[in-house]
């Protein structure tokens, strides 16, 4: 059975636009997924990237065109100027890590709920109440937003190191156990073809 390490940031519009397609693909091929939220702002300088505010205007102008196009293709709402962005990504990331460890809910729904809160609902994912609402909606104990903080912090830092060592440089990034790597929600079709043996 194939396994996918899914590296992502809860601040990433492209991770949001992936929707639940990764999970649909994994289910089709019987693949497992390990969710690995990470600090994207710490990843960029370690892998040759720049945070959006430091990018060349030409790159930002292209991003301003590309994101709405991708949102339209995915038929998903997208606010190009979220009220709370960039927020402190740690609380929501810790909650996802704690939920993955605890089990009992729908982890994909939690991840997408957090991303949707940023990019479609103008919510502050650094707010405990917002994180707890996402946990509850996905079938998890909302108390995980507090109980998993220490372990979450350690795993969050470890995910960054794993990502750097694995060659990850953006979000979303998918690393398969056979060494294949796919960057971006627009490469999910390629990941699907790879798992089917066609690519």
Question: Mind sketching the topology for me?
Answer:
Elements: E1 3-8, H1 13-17, H2 21-29, E2 32-37, H3 40-46, H4 57-74, H5 90-102, H6 107-119, H7 128-137, H8 144-147, H9 149-166, E3 173-176, E4 181-183, H10 188-196
Parallel strand pairs: 1-2
Antiparallel strand pairs: 1-3, 3-4
Helix pairs in contact: 2-10, 5-6, 5-9, 6-7
Attribute tags:
199 residues; alpha+beta; Glutaredoxin; 4-stranded mixed sheet; globular
If you had to describe this structure to a student in words, what would you say it looks like?
- The chain has 199 residues and is an alpha+beta fold.
- It has a single domain (3-196), classed as Glutaredoxin (3-Layer(aba) Sandwich), CATH 3.40.30.
- It has helices at residues 13-17, 21-29, 40-46, 57-74, 90-102, 107-119, 128-137, 144-147, 149-166, 188-196, and strands spanning 3-8, 32-37, 173-176, 181-183.
- The protein has a 4-stranded mixed β-sheet.
- A hairpin with a 4-residue loop joins strand 3 (173-176) and strand 4.
- Helix 2 packs parallel to helix 10, helix 5 packs antiparallel against helix 6 and helix 5 crosses helix 9.
- The longest helix has 18 residues, at 57-74.
- The model has no long low-confidence stretch (mean pLDDT 95).
């Amino acid at each position: 059975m194939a396994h996918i390490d899914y590296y992502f940031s809860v601040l990433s519009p492209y991770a949001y636009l992936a929707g639940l397609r990764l999970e649909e693909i994994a289910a089709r091929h019987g693949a497992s997924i390990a969710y690995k939220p990470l600090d994207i702002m710490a990843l960029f300088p370690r892998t040759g990237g720049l945070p959006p505010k430091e990018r060349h205007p030409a790159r930002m102008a292209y991003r301003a065109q590309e994101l709405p196009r991708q949102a339209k293709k995915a038929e998903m709402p997208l606010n190009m100027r979220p009220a709370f962005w960039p927020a402190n990504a740690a609380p929501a990331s810790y909650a996802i890590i704690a939920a993955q460890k605890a089990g009992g809910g729908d982890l994909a729904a939690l991840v997408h709920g957090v991303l949707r809160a940023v990019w479609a609902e103008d919510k502050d994912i650094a707010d405990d109440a917002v994180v707890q609402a996402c946990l509850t909606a996905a079938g998890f104990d909302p108390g995980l937003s507090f109980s998993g903080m220490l372990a979450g912090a350690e795993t969050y830092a470890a995910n960054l190191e794993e990502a750097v060592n694995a060659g990850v440089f953006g979000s979303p990034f998918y690393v398969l156990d056979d060494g294949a790597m796919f960057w971006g929600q627009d490469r999910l079709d390629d990941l699907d073809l790879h798992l089917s043996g066609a690519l």
